[in-house]
Amino acid sequence: MPRLGRIASRIAGAGVLFLAGLACAPDRGSGDEQARRAGPPRSIGPGEGAVSIVAWAGYIERGETDKSYDWVTGFEKETGCKVSVKTAATSDEMVALMNEGGFDLVTASGDASLRLVHGGRVQEINTALVPSWGSIDPRLQNAPWHTVDGRHYGVPYQWGANVLAYNTRVFPKPPQSWNVVFEEMTLPDGKSNKGRVQAFDGPIYVADAALYLMRHRPELGIADPYALDRAQFEAAIALLRQQRRIVGRYWHDAVAQVDDFVNEGVAASSSWPYQINLLQSR
Predict the structure, then answer these.
(1) Looking at 158, 182, 208, which one is the last position of a domain?
(2) Once rounded to an integer, what is the mean pLDDT over residues 15-35?
(3) 92-121 pLDDT tens trace
(4) Residue 97: which residues within 8 A CB-CB, separation 6 or more?
(5) What percent of the chain has pLDDT over 90?
(6) Based on the domain organization, do 99 and 114 belong to the same domain?
(7) Which residues pair with 51 in a beta bridge?
(8) Which residues contact 203 (CB under 8 A, 6 or more apart)?
């Protein structure tokens, strides 16, 4: 089995946060729209006994994937609140599921959170009711992907680096640049990278291209990969169109990407720590 290495980029996605505020809380009995208009809850009442969550793979674990990782069982015993989880593979799927209704919480990334806020699918929260709010990095507390007009709609949960995953059979030494997934070239094993690299399947991947251009085309003046002017955006899109000629598959399912590295001969790809940990544990 090929071994996987990784190098991290400076981009960190937009973080992941819990959105909504009705989980295991008292039933307000007035419907989602009225609850949203009423503002955030002022107190925490008796629990409902159950909470339904839309989550990324690996975020709400009860030991089913790996017995060493189980933080649901203890929570259920301590609170009496039964946890049910619907795993989503993409931000689009999360938004679709929340639009359908029936879920209390969602671990939304920054490319989904504002769609849910502006779509009226999540409720404003009262940060005073979050005991650990003061320990959250101030840079995340009022982040624009969950704070609108001074109102908070989510609690930052974690952030993670986007990483460059590479097959150590192809790269005896770590690649020194992300150009191995953006530009056609011959890899250290003497073969072309065409058809052997992957890229993330989502609009937020434009930011990865912009980050690459920050270093490789400094004349563009990109200071924030998430805030591009027209010329910078068009340069990022042009890079992604160029990359399309060498991409074997656009990935969005983390588990499927693990299988691609193991069985399909993928040489390098943008990835997340979740896949790296799974691959390195095999």
Answers:
(1) 158
(2) 47
(3) 999 999 999 999 999 998 889 999 999 989
(4) 54, 86, 88, 103, 106
(5) 65
(6) yes
(7) 83
(8) 111
Residues 16 and 111: their CA atoms lie apart, in Å, by 10
Residue 11 located in a structural domain: no
Q: Does residue 266 share a domain with residue 149? A: no
Q: Is 19 helix (H, G, I), strand (E, B) or coil?
A: strand
Q: What mean pLDDT is predicted for residues 34-47? A: 75
Last residue of a domain, one of 158, 193, 222: 158
Residues 104 and 223 placed together within one structural domain of the fold: no
Cβ(98)–Cβ(122) below 8 Å: yes
Statement to judge: residues 40 and 168 lie in one domain: no
Please list, in sequence order, all residues whose beta carbon lies within 8 angstroms of the beta carbon of residue 26, skipping any fewer than 6 positions away.
44, 45, 46, 48
For the whole model, what pTM was predicted?
0.76
pLDDT of residue 8: 44
Tens of pLDDT, residue by residue over 159-189, are: 778 999 999 999 999 999 999 999 999 999 9
Residues 154 and 184 in one domain: no
Domain that holds residue 39: 16-158
Give the model confidence (pLDDT) of 220-260 as tens digits.
999 999 899 999 999 999 999 999 999 999 998 888 999 99
How many angstroms separate the CA atoms of 28 and 136, rounded? 28
Is residue 20 one of the residues assigned to a domain? Answer: yes
- CATH code of the domain containing 94: 3.40.190.10
**CA angle at residue 121 from 117 to 126, to 5 degrees?**
65
pLDDT of the residue at 26? 41
Return d(Cα 95, Cα 90) in angstroms, integer.
9
